[in-house]
Amino acid sequence: MTAGWLSRLVSRRGGERGELDRRVIDKLAAWKSLPAGRLDLPAFDARYVVVNTEASGLDLERDRLLAVGALAIESGVISPQQAWYATLQHAPEAALADLLTFIGNSPVVVFNAPFNRRMLLRAFDETVGFEPDLFWLDLYYLLPALFPERRRDPVRLADWMESFDIETFQRHHGLGDGWAIAQLFLTVQARATGRGAATARGLGDVEHAYREFRRKS
Amino acid sequence: MAQNATDLLVGASTDFLQHFSPFNGMEPEALAYLARHAVLAFHPRGSELLTPAMGEPRHLFIVQRGKILARQTGPTAVTEYTAITLGPGECFPIGAISAHRPSTNAYVAVDDSFCFQIGADEFHELVRMSPVFHRFCTQYIATLLNQSRQQLQASFSQRAAEQQTMTTPLGQLIGKEAAWVTPDTSTRAALEMMNERHVGSMVVADDDRRPIGILTRSDLLPRIVLPGFDLTRPIAEVMTANPHQLPASASAYDAALAMATHGISHLLVVDNDDRLRGIVSERDLFSLQRTSLRQIRAGIDSAQDIATLQRASGDIRQLALNLIAQGVGAEQLTQFISALNDALTRRVIALALEHHELYGIDFAWFAFGSEGRHEQTLSTDQDNGIVWQCPELRDAEPIRIRLIDFAREVNEGLAACGFPLCKGNIMASNPELCLTLEQWKNRFAAWINEPDPQALLNASIFFDFRVLHGNERLGHQLRRSLNKMTRANPNFLRLMASNALKAPPPLGRIRDFVLEEDGTIDLKKSGARLFVDAARIFALRIGIESSSTVERLRQSVSKSGVSADEVAAMVDGFHFIQMLRLRSQHLESEDGTTRDNRIDPDTLNELDRRILKEAFRQARKLQLRLKLDYQL
């Protein structure tokens, strides 16, 4: 199956944009061969990757992905050594293959999944020819689900940053906002631990239940 | 790509850290190292970051946002606070992580908090690479050590907490306002006032209340009644002029020491403008104490025979034990013992001089060793000698024989008063130690020029000389000449340093302490001596006049590269070891056995053990300094 995907990738992309670099192909193949990530690990054993996009605007149809920032959260801490950032103007294939390598099989944490996820997946599809299968968690819903005493409804990132008194070194920057989102995710982990839901699957269930609840009401 | 992202986050952490001390003053490489290794974690309100039960801390925490409460746990309070709150920029647990031991505090987030953390290894690396951070931690630990010592003294005192301690400021001790009159007041009016007010003393002060004299009840008989003094004449004519006075901020200890030193029973307490605040009497200071300081002092000064001095010597010992129980620090305590022992020795000398015709002989009595350093503990044998100058055109030998005869009587008198004769015969009656100034200089020069092991040993005893009686100038001259000789012979100091380094602090890699075969630590040989030896070398190199270890260390601050904070920590370490020595001698004297400065660390409580370890670390730092200075 991998072979089929690769040959399709190479042949389809080959004519339009030139062949993918060998190293990019190797990276994509290595990522594809990873075992499925575990979703049942407690926070102190787990690795999550916060991914945040920087686009030319908020219109999914017209605007394009400019840059991506990503931060890994391992054992409940944010480490500067575990951070990634790239713009997509030059060699977007290499950048996205790199991003996938950085993410590995960890669950992905975003703020406002519909936008971030669509932007990212479309970029993957357009540059490397497939949409990676990832486990997504969306703080847009998780935060009000876990901190109803602060906000009952989903609100903007800036509101949550204000609520937790979180600052960042550069707003509207892929990594700058990503750093704030990562800090918010730490608070989510801590709160969920108190509820016995501190695994990726547990968080996914909380998010799902909250969205169901909102749809019905 | 990842490097770029890391740089952005490191930059963000650096910007944050630069708002706070000590990070804002830190070397750029060290700050970069810290920012690169600092990871951020979240601690929700109510969660524990660190408790004593967690064992050796694995991280140093730096609060980024929120509030962390540090609270004392366990039966022994170590610091003076029971709980403090730490905010952004503050870090913990410096003491515990430095010492590789569990924290004594529990750290709990009182607000939702974010903290940076670095691993213990990274902390130690940071201390190694950053002198600024190192100094910050040293200072912190020194404060902790100081607080611990105060705590220790408090717990050692068996008396209730409300009892006055020797550290109480005099301002708090003085009660009702002192009675005072102007110098032109008639003596009768002054005495009537004393009688009405039921006071034992009358202060004479100028119109601005600045004391100029005092008249006490004990002066009445000799100065007024017996001479038939005319009571209409002004009090200025019978008062004691220039009375001793101390500022209100001075401690009870200072007052007691002044009373002992000057042999007086009343002290005036003045404010910052030298205006009279009140009177402190000996009774105020030692109302609860059986043995009174001045009684001892008066007993010594008026003693007409050795038997009386023997009793005084026993009293000194008893007083020292009381003072230990009252929580007087080791430095003050040893000064105290030293002051009284000096008085005792001077009296023994004075009594001996009555039987020996030494008029016209220019000489001085030297104290060597711990006595020379003002560091006597309760069981010290005598180390003394004589320096003298032979008058021109006179034969030296007959004079020396007279001095030795005199010295023998002093040595025997001191032995009778509880200062055992020196086993090594380091006594003034030894002809080898009753030398002229020139002979002493030559002897010192010989040791310095040919520093064999015996010479180095001699240097460690005799270079700590101090004049106890006689012509002080002889001591100054010898000190100046000694400092000049050692500075001209750096190789001698280098050998002394190498000799000092032969006794490492008894700190173990696996166990806390390295023990002697009998399971004890020799607090003198492996503890106090390490500080004393290093301080002596600093003093000789820099040319410090003082013979006291603490003074030598303190004076070396301004003159060598050691910082004041580091020295304060070293001095604290030295004092703690001295305190343990005094305390173990105290216990010895109660059960009648002598253990010769040995202590079994297993018999110490956890707190003592911890501080002792800290003290030995300070000794190690001193030795490291020597190693660096002399490339050993």
From TrEMBL, chain B:
Q: Does the keyword Glycosyltransferase apply?
A: no
Q: Which residues form the CBS domain?
A: 166-231, 239-296
Query: By its UniProt entry, which SMART domains does this protein fall under?
Result: CBS
GO molecular function (one)? [protein-PII] uridylyltransferase activity
User: What are the record keywords, sorted?
Assistant: CBS domain
Spell out where the chain crosses the membrane.
Answer: none
Q: Give the Cyclic nucleotide-binding domain ranges.
A: 22-127
Check the record and name the InterPro entries matching this protein: CBS_dom, CBS_dom_sf, cNMP-bd_dom, cNMP-bd_dom_sf, Diverse_CBS-Domain, DUF294_put_nucleoTrafse_sb-bd, GlnD_Uridyltrans_N, RmlC-like_jellyroll
Does this UniProt record's set of keywords contain NAD?
no
Q: Supply the name of the protein.
A: CBS domain-containing protein
Organism whose genome encodes this protein: Thauera phenolivorans
Source taxonomy: Bacteria, Pseudomonadati, Pseudomonadota, Betaproteobacteria, Rhodocyclales
